[in-house]
Specification:
Layout: H1 2-19, E1 27-33, H2 53-61, E2 63-69, H3 75-84, H4 113-119, E3 123-129, E4 136-137, E5 143-144, H5 149-153, E6 172-176, E7 185-186, E8 189-190, E9 200-201, E10 220-221, H6 230-248, E11 254-259, H7 280-302, E12 309-315, H8 321-331, E13 355-358, E14 367-374, H9 377-386, H10 402-407, E15 417-420, E16 426-430, E17 433-436, E18 469-472, H11 488-504
Parallel strand pairs: 1-11, 1-12, 2-14, 3-6, 3-11, 7-10
Antiparallel strand pairs: 2-13, 4-5, 6-8, 9-10, 12-13, 15-16, 16-17, 17-18
Helix pairs in contact: 6-7
Length: 512
C-alpha cells in the first residue's frame, strides 16, 4: 500500500502541468478588414469574382470559421468590442464617429486586449484605422468632441491627442482617427500627434469616378495624404515594425493589430492594383486587401516566425449597401452570399463575417469549424493563452475559444451570442434559433425604391403584426420566414434571456 501511495503521488506530480493552464505566448497578428463581406472571399464563396489567393492559403493552412460574427453591424462599436471583449451597446452609444468625434469610448480604467498583452510582456503595435473616438484640442486647450468640418478646423496641431491607441494599451501607433478616406480629417496620426497637419479642403475632382467612389466627405487634407495609397502606407508601417522587432527584440512576443481601410468606400485601389481583376474598382480593392494579407504572411515566413505566430483575419461587419447592389448588378458578385442583409442589418449578412485563424505550431491545418463565435472572444482566448486571469469586470462578453483552436472541440463553447446594430437594435442567437427584438433590419431602410435602393431586396413579412422576428437558421438560413407566432415558447425564452443578459451587464460566465 505504501508503494501504491507513492506511485499515485508521483503520477499526480507528473500530471500537474496538464491540469493547470498551459501558458503560451505566441506572437499575435490581427488583420481587420473594413466592410469585407462573407461572400467576398473565395474560400467562403466559390462564386466570388475576385481572386483571394492569400486568404485561401490561410484557410488551407489553418482554421476557417463558418459561423463567426462581428459584435456590431458597423465599425466603431465593433472595434470597441474587439479591444475590450465587451458589447458596445452597454455604453448606450449610437452611431459611429467621424472626424474628431469623441471622447474615446474605451474609458481609461478599462482593460484592453493590447493592455492585457502588454502586462504579459508583449510589445504592442497598431497601424491603420482607430475609429473608437479620440480627443483633439483647440488653441485654448479645450477638447473637441464634435463630428464635421468645423470641428476639424478648430484643431491645434501643436497639441497631442488623448484617448488614442497609445493611451489604451499600444506601444506604437500610426494611422487615422476615423475612416481614413471617408471622414473629415484626412491626415496621419503618428503616435499621439499629427505631424503633417491638413492645409486645404480635399479636391475630389482628380479622384476616380465610378459607382464605388462616393462616401469621401469634403474634409481637410494634409499634403502627404494620398487617399488612393493609404493601405500601402499602413502596410509599409506594419512590415517595418516586424523587421525591427525581429532585430531588436527577437525574444519578446508581439501583438500587431493591422487595421485596414480596405474595403470601405470609397473603393480607391492603389495604383498597383487598378484593373487587376475583372470585377471593377471594388473587385480590385478586395484584391488589394488580399495582397496585404499575403504580404504580412510572407514577412512572417521571411523572418522565420510564422510557426510561432497566431494570425487572425476577419472583418468589422458585413458589406456596404452601394457595394453589394452594384457588384450584384454589374459583376454577378454577391458580397453577402449566401445571407440576407448587409452592413447595418441584424440579419446574417450584416454581421456574419470571414474569420480565419492560423498558428502552425498549434492549430491543425485545413480545419473548418461551424462553432458560433464572436470577435469579442479574442480577449478571453488570448487571456487563456498567455495566462492572464480576467476579472468579472473585464471582457464581460468574451468566451475562451482556445479549445476549438487547439483541441478542435465540437461541443459548443457559446450558449448564446448577441448582435447589435447602429441604432442599438438587439438580437440573440442560440444554436439554430435567432431572435431579433425589433421589426425590419434594425439598420437600413428597405422602403427606398429605385435601381440603387434596397426595396428590391425586401421580403414579405409572414408574421404580420409581430413586433420582433424569430428564425431557424438551419431550416431557413435566408431568414425568410418569421416564426414569431408559430414558436411562441422559443421566442419568449430567447426574449427573456436577451433581457437578462442586457440587465446583468455580461453574457460570458462569471470568473469567480
Amino acid at each position: 500500500m505504501k508503494y501504491k501511495g507513492i506511485r499515485n503521488c508521483l503520477l499526480l506530480v507528473l500530471s500537474l502541468p496538464l491540469l493547470g493552464k498551459v501558458v503560451e505566448k505566441p506572437n499575435i497578428l490581427l488583420i481587420l478588414a473594413d466592410d469585407l463581406g462573407y461572400g467576398d472571399v473565395q474560400c467562403y464563396n466559390p462564386e466570388s469574382k475576385v481572386p483571394t489567393p492569400h486568404c485561401n492559403r490561410l484557410a488551407r493552412q489553418g482554421m476557417l470559421f463558418t459561423d463567426a460574427h462581428s459584435p456590431s453591424t458597423v465599425c466603431t462599436p465593433t472595434r470597441y468590442s474587439i479591444l475590450t471583449g465587451r458589447m458596445a451597446f452597454r455604453l448606450n452609444y449610437k452611431g459611429v464617429f467621424t472626424g474628431v468625434g469623441g471622447p474615446c469610448l474605451i474609458t481609461p480604467e478599462r482593460l484592453t486586449l493590447p493592455g492585457m498583452l502588454r502586462e504579459k510582456g508583449y510589445e504592442t503595435a497598431m497601424f491603420g484605422k482607430w475609429h473608437i473616438g479620440i480627443s483633439a484640442y483647440d488653441k485654448d486647450g479645450n477638447p473637441i468632441h464634435q463630428n464635421g468640418l468645423d470641428a476639424v478646423k478648430r484643431i491645434d496641431y501643436a497639441r497631442s491627442l488623448k484617448g488614442g491607441p497609445l493611451n489604451r494599451g499600444f506601444d506604437h501607433f500610426f494611422g487615422t482617427v476615423s475612416c481614413p478616406t471617408t471622414d473629415w480629417l484626412y491626415a496621419y496620426v503618428d503616435g499621439d500627434r499629427i505631424p503633417v497637419p491638413p492645409t486645404q479642403i480635399i479636391d475630389r475632382q482628380p479622384l476616380p469616378k465610378h459607382p464605388y467612389s462616393r462616401d469621401n466627405r469634403p474634409g481637410m487634407i494634409a499634403p502627404d495624404f494620398d487617399v488612393e495609397e493609404v493601405d500601402m502606407v499602413f502596410l509599409e508601417k506594419s512590415l517595418k515594425f516586424l523587421d525591427q522587432h525581429k532585430i531588436q527584440k527577437p525574444n519578446k512576443p508581439f501583438f500587431l493589430f493591422h487595421s485596414l481601410q480596405a474595403v470601405h468606400l470609397p473603393s480607391f485601389p492603389g495604383k498597383d492594383f487598378k484593373g487587376k481583376t475583372e470585377a471593377g474598382p471594388h473587385g480590385d480593392f478586395i484584391f488589394q486587401f488580399d495582397h496585404v494579407v499575403g504580404a504580412l504572411l510572407n514577412k512572417l515566413d521571411e523572418l522565420k516566425i510564422a510557426e510561432d505566430t497566431l494570425v487572425i483575419v476577419t472583418s468589422d461587419n458585413g458589406p456596404e449597401v452601394p457595394t453589394v447592389i452594384n457588384m450584384r448588378k454589374t459583376h454577378k458578385h454577391d458580397a453577402a452570399h449566401p445571407w440576407r442583409g448587409v452592413k447595418r442589418d441584424n440579419w446574417e449578412g450584416g454581421h456574419r463575417v470571414p474569420f480565419l485563424v492560423r498558428w502552425p505550431k498549434r492549430v491543425k491545418r485545413g480545419v473548418v469549424s461551424d462553432q458560433i463565435i464572436c470577435q469579442t472572444d479574442l480577449m478571453a482566448t488570448c487571456a487563456n493563452l498567455v495566462g492572464y486571469d480576467l476579472g468579472n469586470n473585464q471582457a464581460e462578453d468574451s468566451f475562451d475559444i482556445s479549445p476549438i483552436l487547439l483541441k478542435h472541440m465540437e461541443k459548443p463553447i457559446r450558449p448564446y451570442v448577441l448582435h447589435q446594430t447602429i441604432s442599438l437594435s438587439l438580437a440573440i442567437r442560440r444554436g439554430d434559433w435567432k431572435y431579433l427584438d425589433h421589426k425590419g433590419s434594425g439598420g437600413n431602410n428597405y422602403s427606398r425604391e429605385g435601381e440603387w435602393g434596397l426595396k428590391q431586396y425586401a421580403l414579405p413579412e409572414k408574421a404580420l403584426g409581430a413586433p420582433g422576428q424569430l428564425y431557424n437558421l438551419k431550416n431557413d438560413p435566408g431568414e425568410t420566414t418569421n416564426l414569431f407566432f408559430k414558436h411562441a415558447n422559443i421566442r419568449k425564452e430567447l426574449k427573456d434571456k436577451l433581457d437578462q443578459l442586457v440587465r446583468s451587464g455580461r453574457s460570458a460566465p462569471r470568473r469567480d
